[in-house]
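call fold(seq) -> tokens
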Amino acid sequence: MSKATNDPHKALKRAIWAYFLLILFEGALRKWVLPQLANPLLVVRDPIAIFLIGYSWYKGVLPNSLMMYGMMALTVAAMVTGLTLGHGNLTVAIYGARIFLLHFPLIFIIGSIFTREDVLKMGEATLWITLPMAVLIVLQFYSPQSAFVNRGIGGNEEGAGFSGANGFMRPPATFSFTNGTAQFFGFAGIFCIYHWLKAEKVNKLLLLSASVGILIAIPFSISRTLTFMLGLTVASAFVGVGRNPQYIKKMLITGVILTTLVVLLGNTELLGPAIDAFLTRFTSASEVEGGMQGAFVDRFLGGMYDAVLASPNAPFFGLGIGMGTNAGTQLLTGDSTGFLISEGEWGRLIGEMGLLLGITAILIRTTLAVKIGVKSIKRISKGDILPWMLFASSCVGILQGQWAQPTNLGFNVLMAGLTLAALKPKRTLFRVLKRVEIRSPGSLETGSHLTSLHVH
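ret:
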């Protein structure tokens, strides 16, 4: 009997893949395919999340995680306080609560259901998409905002691009907003660099094309966030190589290949305007935000310190869960262009849930990041750098990623779950047989018992 037939997690794995694909193409559905359903499609991944939680529970494979259940209980309490002491809007409360009730548990479900091999398969699929996605943002970069490729949510002909530099807009690719471009290419960069360093089975032509796509995306995205994410990935790779000298030769070869690609691409007329716009954006933004300190402390750490300092000014039980999201703002005021509470994640959590519940939610996310980080670091010494590279790029998102934004939420949940899955050791037939033999001596006397074994 085939492995696929025996796999008890087959339906759950398919649902995780559907969740992944909808992260990538939810924006395309809302802009180009079904613009008339743009608002309902905002929560298109929620039914899949409900299925994953419900089916996992039904099959008895729902992870028994104290952090998962603690966050869900905390969210229910925040809903009660939000409806009784806060904004009192049920729709807004449900929309805000879904972040932790439906999506946060997926971190643990993905980590439990996926194997390391599944993680690598998803990474390879991402590499196949990378170059076409890069071609798309090039088209968006050079096309007017009224062009079809730049249509906004609901088919808005004003365009989905966001303020860039030198008259060019930041392209959103297939996503609802430009942050998806940075998240996708940052995610692809992890697997691209990993496969250059590690001798895994991957098509070299695919790896080369994906590398070209990522290098093209850096200037055309006009995104400092993408630069920061790729910088973390490269830094994590250096750490892994430092602990495993056998990777040094491959690191040098990778450096030569990528440097050659940069030189070749940099001399093309296609990239000239994009490079100029990227450098202008980088320089002007640094001047406004105070250089690296402003960009990192305020932007990437999300104003954590300021959020805690400002918390005494908020009601003890908060203003109500969901109020700090764009959708919540739209429902409460009719205008989604501003922030009723805070743009930073920590400020939003404390403002919505109050000092006690908000800080508790922050501590749960911090604890999760620390635990994953410690386990990932331990794996480096064993020559396994994949979990560490995934964690290095996802740790900021786990800590303070702006989960009120659907694309950010999807990528952060996915990457955290994949990191947990990558931490699982490879299971071999010998280990499975040994475990069965220990648990039930003599149970392997006949070959019939082997038909129920599932080997990852």
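Residues 345-380 form the longest helix (36 residues).
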